[in-house]
Design brief:
This protein has 113 residues and is an alpha+beta fold. The chain is built from four helices and seven strands; from the N terminus they run E-H-E-H-H-H-E-E-E-E-E.
């Protein structure tokens, strides 16, 4: 089966002086690299500028972001997306399935806008 080639999106392309420099890049599909909402969320995450984000009141707030094509932030470290009925977090090598632990259910671990 043909697998689409991933490209690297470097944080230095989004921010001149990021507050968080690790990971320095993310491996993403060309379509995801063009996603402006994803870029915005990465800028927020790597600049630590959570001014427009807040803790959700309920899980509905998180899923409202998913349905709007936006990316909530988990533990101020990961962007989370919802693809094919699965919550996935973004790390340097791409999207990974988020483990369903007790911490996932704590509202204080999430940031939404």
């Amino acid at each position: 089966m043909y697998q689409k080639k991933k490209e690297r999106l470097y944080i230095s392309e989004l921010l001149e002086d990021p507050s968080v420099t690790y990971p320095s890049y993310y491996s993403l599909s060309p379509k995801m690299i063009k996603n402006e909402m994803l870029k915005y969320a990465l800028i927020v995450l790597h600049s630590l500028d959570f001014e427009n984000y807040k803790h959700p009141n309920s899980y509905e707030d998180i899923f409202t972001m998913f349905s709007g094509g936006m990316y909530p932030i988990y533990k101020e470290m990961y962007l989370v997306g919802y693809f094919g009925g699965k919550m996935m977090y973004l790390d340097a090598s791409g999207w990974k399935s988020i483990p369903c632990t007790h911490d996932v259910f704590k509202m204080e671990n999430w940031l939404v806008c």
